[in-house]
């Protein structure tokens, strides 16, 4: 591996990904607390929050806050030559 290797993957470093992760973490924490407290309604609310987190991430991604692909069909037109190893 080169010392200054160019990475073309984004690994989800975007507003959409982080928003989805944070919402899903809150929902899973709430559902976990519900298991300890044996509360079925609280558990269901936690699962609904997890589902809303996934939907929020997808909506934000579709709104343009998601990761940008480098060589995909939705890659931005930069007019610059490609850099890196394909």
TrEMBL record:
Keywords: Membrane, Transmembrane, Transmembrane helix. InterPro entries: DUF6704. The chain crosses the membrane at residues 15-37, 44-68. It comes from the Bacteria. Pfam families: DUF6704 (PF20447). NCBIfam families: HGxxPAAW (NF041681). This is Uncharacterized protein. It comes from Pedococcus badiiscoriae. The lineage of its organism: Bacteria, Bacillati, Actinomycetota, Actinomycetes, Micrococcales.
């Amino acid at each position: 591996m080169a010392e200054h290797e160019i990475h073309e993957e984004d690994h989800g470093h975007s507003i959409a990904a982080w928003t989805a992760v944070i919402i899903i973490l809150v929902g899973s924490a709430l559902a976990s607390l519900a298991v300890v407290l044996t509360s079925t309604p609280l558990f269901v609310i936690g699962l609904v929050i997890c589902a809303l987190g996934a939907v929020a991430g997808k909506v934000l991604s579709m709104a343009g806050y998601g990761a940008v692909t480098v060589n995909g069909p939705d890659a931005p037109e930069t007019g610059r030559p490609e850099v890196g190893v394909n």
